[in-house]
Structures are given as structure tokens and as C-alpha cells.
Amino acid sequence: MPLTGLAIGCLGGGAMAQALLTGLIKSGIQARNLYVSDTRHERLDYLSRELGVNGRESNRDLVRESDVVILAVKPQVVEEVLKETGDLFQPRQTLISIAAGITTRFIEKFLPEPVPVIRVMPNTPCLLGCGASALCSGTNAGDRDRERARAIFSAVGRAVEVPEGLMDAVTGLSGSGPAYMYVILEALADAGVRVGLPRDVALLLSAQTMLGAARMVLETSEHPGRLKNMVTTPGGTAIAGVYALEEGGLRVTLMRAVEEATRRSRELSGGLK
Ligand SMILES: NC(=O)c1ccc[n+]([C@@H]2O[C@H](COP(=O)([O-])OP(=O)(O)OC[C@H]3O[C@@H](n4cnc5c(N)ncnc54)[C@H](OP(=O)(O)O)[C@@H]3O)[C@@H](O)[C@H]2O)c1
């Protein structure tokens, strides 16, 4: 395990930091090797009490004590925090940023050369250990740093590597994707109610069906088209439903959603850097 014995610190102790720390503990990392800093005292108390991790009032102390620092503050706070702590980083450390829209080049401006930086775009299901994360490398990051980041984000779901130029596309697909899935699930539950099912039953069946279908794709590695063919018998119910989806333009609507979100991500990150 590339994380064994390393001190891992979350700079910022919000929702995402909590998810990552929880996932790391579940994956076998000892809480005594985990650190968190936050401006809110109650947040540190809570995380120390619930997870047994080490709370630090000072971001500078956290950076001094960590081998891997996960930058987990809101994007608007990144510059302030890097101005406060940047001079402390050393090449033996890995700085992993999860701040949406902040480039590795921007982060590197505040660090002494050659500190390795990895940028990650996770999504909210990380909170349940079921996230989808994409990571990319800054100028000085090597295999050691990528392995560290992969191990951390594999502890809260699945992680893939992409070139940095694709991070807006990742934001448009998996970063924003949970919202699309919730809209689809709500619509399916409404549809179930329309054909006579109680709402709670309709929602449970819809959500479990989405989860099951996603697992079929991930765990069988079959093409989704082939899996769809397997449930569409000639003249049957599923193909009648698929016909209605095609008539309604579902595919192109989803493609447009990802395209629009990607465009918006580019627009927003252009304003941050
Ligand atoms: N949540 C997601 O699903 C998600 C997905 C992808 C990427 N991200 C990225 O993950 C990062 C964290 O998101 P989050 O949802 O975990 O945010 P969050 O819950 O707001 O967590 C950030 C934490 O940092 C604290 N903080 C603020 N200023 C600080 C400072 N100067 N030093 C130390 N701590 C400070 C905040 O305290 P206050 O509340 O008092 O400000 C808060 O507890 C963001 O950059 C976001 O873009 C999140």
C-alpha cells in the first residue's frame, strides 16, 4: 500500500475531508496517521471525536506534520491558504488539491520548486465510499505521487487518471453527474406513481435498478448496448420502453447536459485562475 506509515493531512475539514478520512480509516490507515486542520474549532472537535484523527488549529502545523497534504478548502479560499502555507512545502511531500477549477499551474506558483502537485476532481458519492474521481498531475508529480493519490481516492470509490486539459470534461460528466442521476431517478419514481405504484416503492425500485445496472456495467465489463440487448426480448416490454426513450431524445439530451456543464466549468475555472 503506497500510504503505509505516511502522515496524511486534510487542509480544511469539511464534507469532502470527512469522506476521505472516513474512507482511509475503513481501508486500513490508522487514524493516528491522519491529520485535519480547519478554522472552525467545533469541526476539529467533531472529527477528532468521531474518527480519532489529529485535529490541528494551525494550517502551518498541519503542513509541517504531513507527508501528503490534501487541499480541501473551497476554491475561493485556496489562494489565501497557499499564501499562508506554501513556503513550508518540501519535495518529499505530495500536495493533492480537490478544489474545483483550480489548476496545478496556479497552485505551483505558491510553492517552492519542485513540490509535486496532483489535482483531483471527486464527486459527492465519495461521502458513501462510492465516488468517481479523476486525477491529473502537475509539473513535478511522479509515479510515487500518482500512486499516493490513486490509493487515497480508491479508498472512497473509483479513481482514473486523465490529462489536466480534460478536467472540465470530468466536471461535466462525473462531477456534475450525480445531479443528472437524481433528476432521472425522480422522473422514474414519478413514472412509477403514474402507473399505480406507491411512491416509496417506485423510488426504491428505481434507485436499486440504477445501482444494479451500473454494477452490471462495472463488474461484467460488458458494453451497455449488449446488456440492453439482453433485456429487450422481441416485441417485449423493454424494447417498447426503449423506443419511447429514443423518441423523446434521451441520448442527445444527456449529451447536451454534459456538454453544457463542461462549458460552464471552463467558464467558471477561467474566472478562478
Ligand atoms: N463536496 C463535493 O462533492 C465536492 C466535489 C468535488 C470537489 N469538491 C471540492 O472539495 C473542496 C471542499 O469541498 P467541501 O464540500 O468539503 O467544502 P466544505 O464542506 O465547505 O469544507 C471546507 C472546510 O474548510 C474550512 N475552511 C475555510 N477556510 C479555511 C482556512 N483558511 N483554513 C482551513 N480551513 C478552512 C471550512 O470552514 P467554514 O465552513 O467555516 O468556511 C470548511 O469546514 C472544494 O474545493 C470543492 O470544490 C467538493
Automatic annotation (TrEMBL):
NADPH binds at residue 59. Keywords: Amino-acid biosynthesis, Cytoplasm, NADP, Oxidoreductase, Proline biosynthesis. It catalyses: L-proline + NADP(+) = (S)-1-pyrroline-5-carboxylate + NADPH + 2 H(+); L-proline + NAD(+) = (S)-1-pyrroline-5-carboxylate + NADH + 2 H(+). Residues 164-268 form the Pyrroline-5-carboxylate reductase dimerisation domain. NADP(+) binds at residues 11-16, 72-75. GO terms for molecular function: pyrroline-5-carboxylate reductase activity. Its EC number is 1.5.1.2. GO terms for biological process: L-proline biosynthetic process. One of its GO terms (cellular component) is cytoplasm. It holds the Pfam family P5CR_dimer. It comes from the Bacteria. It is found in: Cytoplasm. Its main location: cytoplasm. Residues 8-101 form the Pyrroline-5-carboxylate reductase catalytic N-terminal domain. SUPFAM superfamilies: 6-phosphogluconate dehydrogenase C-terminal domain-like (SSF48179), NAD(P)-binding Rossmann-fold domains (SSF51735). Pathway: Amino-acid biosynthesis; L-proline biosynthesis; L-proline from L-glutamate 5-semialdehyde: step 1/1. Belongs to the pyrroline-5-carboxylate reductase family. Catalyzes the reduction of 1-pyrroline-5-carboxylate (PCA) to L-proline. HAMAP family: P5C_reductase (MF_01925). This is Pyrroline-5-carboxylate reductase. It comes from Desulfofundulus australicus DSM 11792. The gene is proC.
